[in-house]
């Protein structure tokens, strides 16, 4: 039993060569010849506990994305193209329909209103098919998810700033995403960028390992609520920073838990911003949660409310009285002139900001740090090694279990409220939301946060760049590329049909055989790529940044 298992050794070799250890068997059929073959495609997992090679590949791709957009000195995206005559005609026709509908409503001709609504819907679909973004206007007679159940009504909250938050200057936003250029005394110019870390407030004194000194005085409730609403606080911070600075600040970062298990965020910022401004904006940023009060928990997990089929509502298990509906609870908040938000999220006093010069080791170290834990599960970032840490995690999770995450969360039943669009399948304390899981520590949103104009490319575009670099290095050309318009754009002709193969299909071999074939193929590809890189280095000593940061041929084949 002390001897290593052959299967485990095979997976270790696959991991070493970057071969996916749980590939998807896809059947590819050539539409010209009818030839069918089974091809293994990588699973594309982003976590090491599922597939280390795919997670490592994703991490390198994120590093390339951050590196390409951090210190660029030009605008990544051009402005929108001018509208075509067909697009203008559709919008003009949409305006005529809106005018006709308004006249029909004034004349109480409701049959014509229904016909015009159908025509408006068809024109909206045509506008979207023509290539315009967004909607011309909101649809008539429908209710969006962010509105209440009552049609035609939308709740509005006051935008007046809180008295306990400092005021921020507001400048007109310039149409630029790059930072300032500085000139030294000798005439050289440079354009530095920044590295920023934002943390939440303290919930009580803690030990060096992150556990509280006095667990009874540690505010676990506020820690749970802050973790749930931390993504919205980050959004408010970037909105305030852009309004305060007067230009479209771009960022790329990640959200991770600290040792005390509270989330914090690291960001790479393009350009420079005074540290005092960053600290002032962080202190002035807050997010108010306008939800019903949760000061008193009326029911427990062992004895929750029950569903009444006849009333189609949740009722008290003893009195059979229906619980307060979500609309009634929000109406009570609107009618109360002295109403306060149920929770206010703020940043802590610790704001770490420093400048980073492009092309330095400090910049590469920051990129590695921001992507250090993106391949790990949130709960695996900091291992629980002691009983004190385990008890701290358990207390936080117990509070997260009963913390409402959305307006439709079943946990509202514990506080005597029926959530929005309540139904009989709700289970208090067992919400399927990501924030309630023990392994997420309340971090339910995206962990990688990259602004839209960071590099001007999507993740698929960065993958294509890596493949193009490998093909150019090896001298490989692609066939079947035909122009699709008069502007030189090309697209690969569709000649294959794909479908997922079943594991019990006769042409799908055992997983170990497929792994061994992939490992052998990957080893030969790697040898070819290394030889091509040596030849390119001898022919051109100064390799480009893209060539320097290229990936292995085998890791980017699919």
Can you describe this structure?
By secondary structure, the protein is an alpha+beta fold. The chain has helices spanning 6-16, 52-70, 85-106, 110-130, 220-228, 230-245, 275-284, 326-335, 361-370, 387-401, 459-474, 511-539, 545-548; strands at 24-30, 36-41, 182-183, 189-190, 193-200, 251-257, 263-269, 286-289, 306-308, 313-315, 343-356, 448-450, 481-483, 490-492, 496-500. The strands form 5 sheets. The protein has a 6-stranded antiparallel beta sheet with strand order 8-11-5-7-6-12. It has a 3-stranded antiparallel beta sheet with strand order 2-1-15, with no helix packed on it. Strands 3-4 form a two-stranded antiparallel ribbon. Helix 1 packs parallel to helix 12 (511-539). It is globular. The model is unreliable at 142-149, 478-491 and 542-558 (pLDDT under 50).
Provide tags for this entry.
about 550 residues; alpha+beta; three-stranded antiparallel beta sheet; disordered C terminus
């Amino acid at each position: 039993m002390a001897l290593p298992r052959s299967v485990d050794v095979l997976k270790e070799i696959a991991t070493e060569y970057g071969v996916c250890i749980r590939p998807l068997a896809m059947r590819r059929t050539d539409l010209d010849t009818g030839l069918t073959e089974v091809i293994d495609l990588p699973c594309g997992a982003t976590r090491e506990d599922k597939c280390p090679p795919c997670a490592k590949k994703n991490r390198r791709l994120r590093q390339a994305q951050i590196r390409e957009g951090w210190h660029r000195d030009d605008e990544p995206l051009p402005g929108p193209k001018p509208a075509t005559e067909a697009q203008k005609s559709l919008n003009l026709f949409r305006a005529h329909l809106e005018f006709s509908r308004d006249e029909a409503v004034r004349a109480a001709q409701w049959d014509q209103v229904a016909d015009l609504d159908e025509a408006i819907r068809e024109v909206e679909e045509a506008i979207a098919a023509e290539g315009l973004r967004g909607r011309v206007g909101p649809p008539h007679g429908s209710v969006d998810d962010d509105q209440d159940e009552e049609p035609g009504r939308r709740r509005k909250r006051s935008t007046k700033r809180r008295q306990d938050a400092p005021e921020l200057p507001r400048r007109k936003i310039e149409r630029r995403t790059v930072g300032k250029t500085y000139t030294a005394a000798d005439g050289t110019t440079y354009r530095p960028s920044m590295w920023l870390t934002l943390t939440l407030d303290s919930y009580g004194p803690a030990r060096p390992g992150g556990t509280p000194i006095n667990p009874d005085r540690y505010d676990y409730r506020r820690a749970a609520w802050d973790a749930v609403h931390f993504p919205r606080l980050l959004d408010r911070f970037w909105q305030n920073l852009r309004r305060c600075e007067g230009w479209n600040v771009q960022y790329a970062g990640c959200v991770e838990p600290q040792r005390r298990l509270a989330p914090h965020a690291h960001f790479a910022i393009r350009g420079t911003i005074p540290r005092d401004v960053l600290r002032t904006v962080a202190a002035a940023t807050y997010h108010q949660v306008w939800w019903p009060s949760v000061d008193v928990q009326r029911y427990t997990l062992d004895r929750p409310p029950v569903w009444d089929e006849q009333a189609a509502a949740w009722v008290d298990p003893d009195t059979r009285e229906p619980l307060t509906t979500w609309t009634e609870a929000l109406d009570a908040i609107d009618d109360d002139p002295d109403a306060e938000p149920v929770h206010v999220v703020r940043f802590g006093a610790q704001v770490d900001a420093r400048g980073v010069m492009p092309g330095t080791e400090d910049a590469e170290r920051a990129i590695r740090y921001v992507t250090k834990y993106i391949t790990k599960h949130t709960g695996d970032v900091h291992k629980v090694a002691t009983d004190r840490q385990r008890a701290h995690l358990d207390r936080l999770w117990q509070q997260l279990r009963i913390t409402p995450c959305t307006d439709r969360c079943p946990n509202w039943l514990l506080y005597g409220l029926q959530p929005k669009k309540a139904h009989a399948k709700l289970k208090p304390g067992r919400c399927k939301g990501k924030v309630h899981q023990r392994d997420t520590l309340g971090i339910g949103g995206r962990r990688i946060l990259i602004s839209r104009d960071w590099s001007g490319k999507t993740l698929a575009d960065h993958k294509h760049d890596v493949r193009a670099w490998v093909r150019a290095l090896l001298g490989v050309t692609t066939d079947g590329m035909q122009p699709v318009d008069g502007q030189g754009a090309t697209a690969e002709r569709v000649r294959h049909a794909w479908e997922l193969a079943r594991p019990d299909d006769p042409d799908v071999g055992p997983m170990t055989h497929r792994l061994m074939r992939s490992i052998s193929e990957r080893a030969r590809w790697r040898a070819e790529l290394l030889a091509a890189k040596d030849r390119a280095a001898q022919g051109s000593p100064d390799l480009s940044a893209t060539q320097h940061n290229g990936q292995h041929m085998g890791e980017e084949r699919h």
